[in-house]
Write a structure and sequence with these properties.
Length: 232
């Protein structure tokens, strides 16, 4: 049984309502409602709203949900594709607007829409990530973002053009970390090696290993890369 389905059933029982009563009011079959409660069926947004309204309840509280509970109740992959499509096209493909689901709204403290930026920091998409204690990967949930690698400058370090790296805010160079830098050429990914005399070696690896030594004072860091997502 999914957590949301369990909560719906508990609320129905608490109010002394029979599945047949709720199903009749909602315009669905009793079997359909029982499958939702059992977590074996995912309701459409309008169906979920009718069920909640029939029980005189609002969207379930989000504080107790786990990712497994959410995955058992909401199709997160269809809710947020890797790169945003125009709204009309997305709704045409799916047959409904899933992104506005009341389940996702109810779980806003558990899941966060994280933007995807390209090399000039234009938003080109978004991803859905778990929130724990108000943070994503230990950083404030509204400060993290994905950066889409614009080229193969880091493919020797397993980051290819079009791959997504999750960036958390940081202004300090860290030994051995891949960091997103603000340069005259735009945003660039580089591997960091700390050197004596307040200097830093910036490493890249396309067809061959290359490095550049700069003064720490000339380094402008946007954030630290903590996760890589790549297409197979």
């Amino acid at each position: 049984m999914s957590r949301l389905g369990d909560l719906i059933k508990q609320e129905r029982l608490r109010r002394g309502l029979r599945p047949k009563e709720i199903a009749r009011i909602c315009g669905v079959s009793e079997k359909f409602l029982l499958e939702i409660e059992a977590g074996t069926r995912i309701p459409r947004d309008d169906q979920a709203q009718r069920i909640l309204k029939a029980m005189g309840s609002e969207a379930p509280a989000q504080s107790g949900f786990t990712l497994d509970d959410i995955a058992a109740t909401v199709d997160l992959q269809s809710a947020l594709p890797r790169v945003k499509e125009p709204k009309k096209e997305k709704e045409k493909e799916s047959g409904k607007g899933v992104a506005g689901s009341i389940w996702l709204d109810a779980l806003s403290d558990v899941l966060q829409h994280v933007p995807v930026y390209n090399a000039v920091m234009h938003e080109v998409g978004s991803r859905l990530l778990p929130v724990r204690d108000g943070k994503v990967e230990g950083a404030p949930k509204d400060k993290v973002f994905y950066f889409m690698a614009p080229d193969n400058a880091m493919r020797g370090f397993r980051v290819h053009r079009g791959d997504l790296v999750l960036v958390v805010p940081s202004k300090t160079a860290e030994e051995g970390a891949m960091m997103l830098l603000d340069t005259p050429q735009g945003k660039e990914l580089r591997l960091i090696k700390l050197l004596p005399r307040y200097q830093v070696m910036l490493q890249r690896y396309d067809s061959a290993f290359e490095s550049e030594i700069v003064n720490m004072s000339d380094l402008h860091i946007t954030g630290r890369c903590v996760r890589l997502e790549a297409e197979l």
